[in-house]
Design goal:
By secondary structure, the protein is of the alpha+beta class. About 55% of the residues lie in helices and about 5% in strands. Helix 1 runs antiparallel to helix 5 and helix 6 crosses helix 7.
Length: about 375
């Protein structure tokens, strides 16, 4: 039976929009605190100290306001892990490019050295020829010639020889300069690779520290407390999504997915249920930008790997102009990204311990929207 006027809510919500709001109310999958990343390779102090203030398993259920503080702390820890995840992904992507550049430079150095060896051999042969003529240059031999015919022929050879000698010297000089530059470039790439390795290690340390602190904090909650915490997460997601819908934004969004956007959505939909793993880009697990980058790669449109670079490099569009397939970037630091699928819904890889799922587009603070196939 088709939708009727009773399925519409304030703010221009349709059936799916309303359903998404309900989903936010009954599942923790769309809860805030999603993970993704912004380059910040500097390791910070361990956040495990925050876990020591959490309730111990033996205490009774604390007031709601205390659990709300726990929820916010968990959000902060997972957000920090998300920021570090983007730093890790950025360092990994840079390392791959730098390694490829080093390989190409090595090939150029080998080729240049072979060319230099050949040029030196040519110079050696020229020197040997001069030695065989008594050490006299061609121009001197030409002046000493008494035969007019030989003189004219020799004049042409002298000019050719002079040009060849100058060309050989230029080639030798240029090849030597090229080799010097290739070596300097390779050394520079090696230095960048080493700096990236350190940044990657620092990001990994930060990720593992924040996730460990979050897991320790949750492990100290009683079963009742965990249940109540999940309820607080559901409420926060529901309230945020409802507030976003009640602005009437869906009444302004009318865009239809492009052909490439439909392919990206189909790919992302097929990943629902797969676990979030930081640094992963499929096929068995994903982090947030791993999912969005692979979704658009499957649509024939490669995009940057990290959420920050997706925000920096892709075309920005107004929220009211977005269409299914566009990417919504979240938080001021662009540390999370999700794929918009229409009617106020997104597909995302949320955070550690969660799976790829459908959620409400308004459950997190929206920084902006980008379009991969603009």
């Amino acid at each position: 039976m088709g939708p009727d006027k009773h399925t519409v809510r304030p703010g221009g919500r349709g059936i799916l929009a309303t359903a998404v709001t309900v989903v936010c109310a009954v599942t923790v999958l769309a809860a805030p605190g999603t993970a993704f990343a912004a380059p910040d390779p500097t390791p910070s102090a361990s956040a495990t100290s925050g876990a020591s203030a959490s309730p111990s398993p033996s205490v009774t259920l604390p007031p709601d306001k205390d659990l709300e503080a726990v929820r916010r702390k968990l959000d902060d820890l997972y957000h920090d892990a998300a920021v570090a995840t983007d730093a890790y992904n950025a360092a990994e992507e840079a390392a791959q490019k730098q390694s490829a550049q080093i390989v190409e430079l090595a090939k150029k150095i080998v080729k240049g050295q072979r060319k230099l060896d050949q040029l030196k051999q040519r110079a050696g042969r020229a020197a040997a020829a001069q030695y065989r003529t008594g050490g006299l240059p061609d121009s001197a031999q030409l002046v000493l010639s008494d035969n007019p015919s030989q003189f004219l022929d020799g004049a042409g050879r002298v000019l050719q020889g002079q040009r060849a000698a100058k060309g050989l010297i230029r080639e030798l000089t240029q090849t030597q300069q090229d080799l010097k530059q290739y070596a300097a470039d390779a050394a520079g790439q090696w230095n960048k690779l080493e700096a990236g390795r350190k940044a990657k290690a620092a990001a990994k340390k930060k990720i593992t520290e924040r996730i460990a602190a979050a897991e320790e904090l949750q492990s100290k909650l009683e079963k009742k407390q965990k249940k109540r915490l999940a309820e607080l997460e559901r409420q926060a997601a529901y309230q945020a999504q409802t507030a976003w819908l009640d602005t009437g934004i869906l009444g302004e969004i009318h865009g239809n997915a492009s052909a490439a956007g439909q392919k990206a959505i189909a790919f992302a939909t097929a990943q629902i249920g797969k676990p979030y793993v930081w640094g992963a880009e499929g096929p068995d697990s994903y982090d947030c930008s791993g999912l969005t980058s692979q979704a658009w790669a499957s649509a024939g449109k490669p995009i940057p790997r990290t959420s920050q670079e997706q925000w920096k490099q892709l075309k920005h569009v107004d929220v009211k102009d977005m269409r299914p397939g566009d990417l919504i970037i979240y938080f001021d630091d662009a540390s999370h990204v999700a794929l918009y699928i229409g009617d106020g819904a997104i597909i995302q890889a949320p955070r550690p311990g969660r799976t790829v799922s459908i959620g409400g587009a308004g459950t997190m603070p929206i920084l902006g929207v980008v379009r991969p196939d603009a």
